[in-house]
Amino acid sequence: MNIAAQPQLDSDYLDVSDPSFVIHSQEVHDARERNWFARTNYGLAILRYEEMKQLLRHPKLRQGSAAWPRHNGVTEGPFSDWWNHVLLNLEGSDHARLRRLVNPAFSPKMLEKMNPRFQALAEELIDAMSARGHCEFMSEFAEPYAARVICIMLGLPETEWKKIAGWSSTLGLALGVTLKQDLPRIEKALEGLYQYADQLIDDRLRDPGEDFVTRLVLAQRDDDAMSRDELRVMLVLLIFGGMDTTRNQLGLAMESFMQHPEQWELLAERPELSGNAVAEVMRTNPTVTWVTREAVEDFEYQGLSIAKGTTVHLFSQAAGTDPRAMPSPEFNIAEEHPPHFGFGGGAHHCLGHFIAKSDMSIALPLLAKRLCQVRLDGDATWLPRSGNTGPVTMPLAFRVRA
Ligand code: HEM
Q: Highest taxon of the source (predicted)?
């Protein structure tokens, strides 16, 4: 039975394809108070914590992001091809094999070696902007920090960050509802990233180093664990998947702290709270505002029949602030809450979560230690406020702490 034929299950309707739809909004919280789900123009939205936790691991749901281009009128071409083959959109044995191959490079042990470089990088960027008392936070801190972190991780020259970040953020337009109209730019950026990945693979084959890319290149050559095509698709995903997300999440962190200046002061006084600060930002203000799943067959969940092929969007912030799961859902870095969904969950849980947590929990307390009275110094501009969201520009004014 189709969900539309179930009037007894009262729920709201959310038009999630409307470019002006705001996912972190009262409208969505009101819908959550009405029911654990809402209907959308694509299918369903899951709004409560317990249901999101269960459905992220539900055997009748599989990754649904592959449908995004189709939903936006794009069914073929280089972007579609790449998107259909990225780790995020694979399932079963191919997904498990590729994830197993790249996983060791993301371990906390590997990160320990990189953390001092992340710290030096954050200090360098803060030094460069602090004397002026104002900055454009996204281009002066969030973007170079996120991009250079990925360069450090993948062993790429940090001087190339601008080129890579440019391609990556253009590719990021693909996650917006204007995908179709932006397609020519998106495919050009993808081509740039592919050429860069190809050159990188050839360089490492000729001149192997100690870095992450060398390890993948050698794995691919020695035992054919990963084909060359899979490797270039993976490299483009890692550059893209790590850069924009971290940049946007840092911008959203500043938004959260400006709304809660007392929390900024607390972080400056108690930098040991940085891990929880990152978790709180991601629980209450995640950049990946939903993860998408698709029903592989008809099934019933909590009295609701979900038809095969239904697209299910799981709303991370509505679930992360669900009062049923946490008595005090407000942003509070001194309080521990149940695990957030800012990195998704289940089989596709973010591969880069250790690195993202680590680089953000280095950057945020350093910013708080150096800058105070941080406020907006003009209007910020924004990506659409659903899907993958965050500030495009964020002019800030601040004082430097004595
Ligand atoms: C998956 C968020 C940083 C690589 C995911 C997912 C989310 C996410 C929500 C799951 C999507 C789904 O289930 O549909 C974030 C956020 C980040 C971040 C918010 C930063 C704040 C990174 C970094 C990397 C990375 C630094 C790598 C350099 C990946 C990959 C996947 C993934 C490869 C796919 C995993 C799979 O399908 O098995 N990320 N991510 N991410 N992320 Fe991240």
A: Bacteria
Fill in the DSSP letter of residue 288.
B
Q: Where in the sequence is the domain holding 362, given as residue range(s)? A: 3-400
**Three-state SS at 132:** coil
Domain CATH for 142: 1.10.630.10
Q: Considering only CA atoms, which residue is closest to atom 36 of ligand 1? A: 348
Indicate left, alpha or beta for 355 from its phi (over 0: left) and psi (-120 to 50: alpha).
alpha
Per the structure, the count of domains in the chain is 1
* Interval between CA 131 and ligand 1 midpoint (Å): 35
For ligand 1, the distance from its centroid to the CA atom of residue 373, given in whole angstroms, is 32
Per-residue pLDDT tens over the stretch 5-33: 454 467 899 999 888 999 999 999 999 99
ipTM: 0.99
Pocket-testing residue among 245, 250, 280, ligand 1, by greatest number of atoms within 8 A of Cβ: 245
Work out whether strand 43-46 and strand 290-295 pair parallel, antiparallel, or are unpaired. unpaired
